[in-house]
Design brief:
376 residues; four-stranded mixed β-sheet; three-stranded mixed β-sheet; 15 strands; binds zinc ion
């Protein structure tokens, strides 16, 4: 992947020494141009993801300096990958909020909100992967005004209250003397611009709520606590700022008889006392839908676990699969035919009062303790 990766500066079309504002401006222009909602060319989605990835790195001071020094090698695992990456927790979302809010000089958000969507998956879909279609409700760029918020043919004008700076100086007197503080301009809300004739469709917000269908590839091996991030599929930001991301949380339906533990699958297999004592070969189901023969060795005890290699969950990263673990459940018969009762009675007679052959030492102790009690 890294061999074919393009340079982040080249992707955004900015110089290596570009300012934060230049990066942001170029990103907005390209994101609007290549967003799959707008651009129907086949490579638009790939370009859009590439643009988002580049922006996320270059707009973050620490990520950018790491990238400048080490290139793409510095970014492996951190939001890279083909547009999505399962996240271990919500912390990455909160990080994005915190850095976004702390960096800007103005309190206004610099991008749209991240959204969360809970997607129900069948047990097998999480194991083998799936392509799912989902419908979300999110804020999109208003196509009437292009996100500016001004009615077509009009332009936002510079705010006269703050002269376009978005801030006003407030002089206050106190017992320590006079001090000056900078406050966000109330007239323009800190934007520095005022819309005198708002767009009718979006009422000047630049965004409208819309439903949207998305196709999501669920990679094989995902588990309940993981998330899939779709970059740029959240709410578009106010005043034409870039969109947030969409986080897909997974709700995996339980299976009839498999239970998952990491990459291993557990199941219980009921066997009868003859199979346990004499050994047997039993066809057991696999999660893929087929069966495999399982050898029960002679003398198998209740609760014994037998491992079937490579029939578990495919590893999310890299090759190979987990195992299928079969826990043997010894069933004592309750409804016997006359013939079966005779056979068991004969067996009981042959055992006598001795513990069954092959019983462990501690079980012998148990039988001896009972005999001691009965005799004395
Ligand atoms: Zn509009
Ligand atoms: Zn103002």
């Amino acid at each position: 992947m890294s061999a074919t990766k393009r340079d982040y500066y080249e992707i955004l079309g900015v110089a290596r020494g570009a300012s934060e504002e230049e990066i942001r401006r170029s990103y907005r222009r390209l994101a609007r141009q290549y967003h799959p909602d707008v651009n129907k060319e086949t490579d638009a989605e790939a370009r859009f993801k590439e643009i988002n990835e580049a922006y996320e790195v270059l707009i973050d001071t620490s990520k950018r300096s790491a990238y400048d020094r080490f290139g793409h090698a510095a970014m492996s695992g951190a939001g890279a990958g083909p547009g999505y990456g399962p996240f271990d927790s919500m912390s990455s979302i909160f990080d994005a909020f915190v850095t976004g809010a702390a960096r800007g000089a103005r309190p206004a958000p610099t991008r749209g909100s991240h959204l969360a969507y809970r997607l129900a998956l069948d047990f097998e879909e999480a194991i083998f992967g799936a392509e799912k279609e989902l419908e979300i409700s999110h804020l999109e760029v208003c196509d009437t005004c292009g996100g500016v918020g001004a009615a077509p043919g009009t332009q936002p004008v510079t705010c006269v209250n703050c002269a376009g700076t978005g801030e006003v100086r407030r002089v206050q007197q106190s017992i320590f003397g006079q001090f000056v503080s900078l406050m966000p301009c109330e007239r323009c809300g800190g934007d520095g611009q005022v819309i005198s004739s708002p767009c009718e469709k979006c009422k000047g917000a630049g965004r409208v709520r819309a439903n949207k269908r998305l196709r999501v590839n669920i990679p094989a091996g995902v588990d309940e606590h993981q998330q899939i991030r779709l970059a740029g599929e959240g709410d578009w930001g106010p005043k034409g700022t870039p969109p947030g991301d969409l986080y897909i949380e997974l709700a995996i339906r339980p299976h009839r008889f498999f239970r998952r533990q990491g990459y291993d699958l557990w199941m219980e297999l009921p066997i009868n006392i003859a199979q346990a004592a004499l050994g047997a070969e039993i066809q057991v189901p696999t999660v893929a839908g087929g069966t495999v023969p399982l050898k029960i060795p002679a003398g198998t005890q209740h609760d014994k676990v037998i491992r079937i290699r490579e029939q578990g969950v495919p590893h999310l990263r890299g090759a190979g699969r987990g195992d299928q673990l079969v826990r043997v459940k010894l069933q004592v018969p309750t409804a016997l035919s006359d013939h079966q009762r005779e056979l068991l009675a004969e067996l009981a007679e042959s055992f006598g009062e001795e513990p069954p052959p092959g019983a462990r030492d501690d079980e012998k102790g148990f039988f001896e303790r009972i005999r001691d009690k009965l005799s004395g």
